[in-house]
Design brief:
By secondary structure, the protein is mainly alpha-helical. The chain has one domain. It has helices spanning 16-24, 35-46, 57-65.
Amino acid sequence: MWRDIQPSQLLIPLDVHVDRIARNLGLLERRQTDWAAVLELTERLREFDALDPVKYDFALFGLGVLDQG
């Protein structure tokens, strides 16, 4: 199954940690944390890497968990 899905097709998982850090970094402007915010953030991350925008999830999550943002 995973051989048929490209990293570019994935969407960023938006939990409280990723949400907070993305907002602090100016990557997410939408006020609500909802499906539209997932799409907005994924599109912003595609500006950095169109082939794998979700690779930034671990960094955003980690900064949020460590309260670094």
